[in-house]
Amino acid sequence: MDFLIDYIVIPLIKIVIVFLAISGVVAYLTLLERKVIAFIQVRLGPMRVGPHGLLQPIADGLKLMLKEDIVPSGADRLIFTMAPIITLIPAFIVFAVIPFGPTIELFGRQISLYITDLNIGVLYVLAISSIGILGVILGGWASNSKYPLLGALRSAAQMVSYEVALGFSIIGVLLLSGTLSLTGIVEGQQGTWLGFIPRWNIFLQPVGFILFFICGVAETNRAPFDLPEAESELVAGFHTEYSGFRFSLFFLAEYASMIVISSMAVTLFWGGWLSPISNTTPVGLIWQLMSVLWFSVKVLVFLYLYLWFRASWPRYRYDQLMSLGWRLLMPLAIANVVVTAILALILRG
Amino acid sequence: MTTQEHTLFDSNEITVSMGPQHPSTHGVLQVKLKLDGERVMDAECVIGYLHRGVEKLGEHQTYGQFVPTLDRMDYIAAVSNCLGYCEAIEKMLEVEAPPRAQYVRVLLTELNRISSHLLWLGTHALDIGAMTVFLYCFREREEILKIFENYCGARLTTHVFRIGGLQYELYDGFEEQVRVFVKDFPSKVDEYETLLTENRIWLGRTRDVGVLTKQEAIDMGVTGPCLRASGVEWDIRKSNPYAAYADFDFDIPIGEKGDTYDRYLVRMEEMRQSTRIVSQAVEKIPDGPIRAKVGKIIKPPQGDVYHAIEAPKGELGYYVVSDASTQPYRVRVRPPSYVNLQALRQMVLGHMVADVVAVIGTLDIVLGEIDR
């Protein structure tokens, strides 16, 4: 009986909660994006559906679902249908290892505020999130159209290149924390220096963090690296031929990946669910639940950065994007790994 | 960057039709692109989707009736279209608009130049991905359109001048409204420049993109800011002053390299200079009549006339032939966008697809004017 509850019921409940929460956050992230950019651009954004447009995401979702399902003639039907699904699923299952909070005690049971704690969590995130790119390539190819094909080729090249630098930028953190488990990395960041500076990896790995976030933005195809869907050049890039619900799956996947990258940035560099004030594992249910709030606030800051970037910057050109990735970010990431390794070796004696 | 990489066995080339329904071809321009991966091997412009036979229409309307039709050519800068035609007919009739009308003409034309450049900047930046500049530009453009609306009731196709002068006297508070705009506007230009001028991505996207050398620009008959960015100091407002331009103090910005960045800088400076002209004009609008004595029925003597003005996009010329009847025998328009567009192929060869969009933006074309 205990086995059933511990390994089937509780994980299932957690999965449902995380899935629903992430779906809701994704939906409202679209509204947040429109509102934030609107305020930056001296306008109001959506105002008609509900007070201050609060019901807009629901209306958008309904509209997309009720739209006619169009498959272009000559398209590969099976792959055309599979592509958005292949993109969406990895974006969501990555959340399985993200630690939202510490372990709490509820009804006499130890319940951890994450779905699972893999000892190779970081590798899992990198591996799963790379699968999403397959959907982009397949979707662009299966549309049997030129703009999507160009968009898909671009994204393939872009995501593969930046994934390398992304991986290297994390190694510094892994060297310092000595574990691949995301929960382990968060717990390793407890405590303070001089009594007030939290022992977060950001202070040890500033270069690593900047590289990670730049690569993360590129990896999720967001401005200023939104070339795969550069609307002014390629109409809509790889999803030009997609409409209705299929399109919304691509859309959801993009926003879910934004949350993944932000959560990873928070977990790896900014102390995850640790509170910046005490920076220790909290005791007591309220404080333990508060740590989920800390996590959310930190993630929100990075999501806001995403939107801020989009409102402020022009778009890179394809060749400039590539040279930035390979000629600047890659060497920096490798140098960061080498320097970190040497310092870690010296300091540990 | 040459097109030498193309060989017989190269099967990577694909032909993409950019437009006529494409978000950033600024209207119904179609550009057929031959691409090798991302590189443009060849480009061909297909125009004519917006052809309305404007020139032919003129042959069936009286001289005065034709003016509103001309507003529909370069609908972004309708005031300039109107000014060029009215002055051409005035030249034929050998009348001159009274000084007050001349000053108001300069003022409104320069305001229109600013609004045209604002639209260019907004869409150009949007094409390159900077979406916020677009909305900032529209915010200021709105103020100019409000002035037009208050003056003549229309915002875009204004039909603001008449042959021989103006139709309407200035409304109360016109000067004040213009003064407020002129006072605020330079700081707004600074705001756009903060977002773009020294932005690393913007520099990367515009520097050395679509270079047009001095000689190439002259050979292809390119005019306007595109010509001046290539280093040729040619502005009809200075070289052959029309209306009251001789009375004003302003500079002509010129570029050096003739790349997209230079054209950007030239147009930004032109907006500042236009503001200067407007602020001078609004302070010294003379009193007096607003329309010269022109008969109800306009019948120019037999003959022909060519009159060119500096429209926001370049030299806008009207060649009008009269057979001494009430309708023009022939009106030929030299639209700046049409002539500038032929530089497109030269400017995009060997560049990336993304640069095609930047170059179309920097040429500042209006299809209504190209197809007519």
Tell me what the structure shows.
The complex is a heterodimer of chains A (349) and B (372). Chain A has 349 residues and is mainly alpha-helical. Chain A has one domain. In chain A, the strands form two sheets. Chain A has a two-stranded antiparallel sheet. Chain A has a two-stranded antiparallel sheet with strand order 3-4. In chain A, helix 2 crosses helix 10, helix 3 runs parallel beside helix 10 and helix 10 packs across helix 11. Chain A starts with a helix and ends with a helix. The mean pLDDT of chain A is 84. Chain B is built from 15 helices and eight strands. Chain B starts with 12 loop residues before the first strand and ends with a helix. Chains A and B meet through helix 5, helix 9, helix 11 and helix 12 of A and helix 4, helix 5, helix 7 and helix 14 of B.
Keywords:
heterodimer; A: 349 residues; mainly alpha; two-stranded antiparallel ribbon; 12 helices; B: 372 residues; alpha+beta; Cytochrome-c3 Hydrogenase, chain B; three-stranded antiparallel sheet; 15 helices; 8 strands
Set out the fold topology.
The complex is a heterodimer of chains A (349) and B (372).
Chain A: H1 2-40, H2 56-66, H3 77-93, E1 103-106, E2 109-112, H4 121-142, H5 146-177, H6 182-187, E3 192-193, E4 197-198, H7 201-204, H8 206-219, H9 231-234, H10 244-269, H11 285-312, H12 318-348
Antiparallel strand pairs in A: 1-2, 3-4
Helix pairs in contact in A: 1-2, 1-10, 1-11, 2-10, 3-4, 3-10, 4-5, 5-8, 5-12, 8-10, 8-12, 10-11
Chain B: E1 13-18, E2 30-36, E3 39-46, H1 54-58, H2 66-71, H3 78-93, H4 99-128, H5 131-152, E4 161-162, E5 165-166, H6 174-196, H7 200-206, H8 214-219, H9 225-229, H10 236-239, H11 260-283, E6 303-311, E7 314-322, E8 328-334, H12 336-341, H13 344-348, H14 353-363, H15 367-371
Antiparallel strand pairs in B: 1-2, 2-3, 4-5, 6-7, 7-8
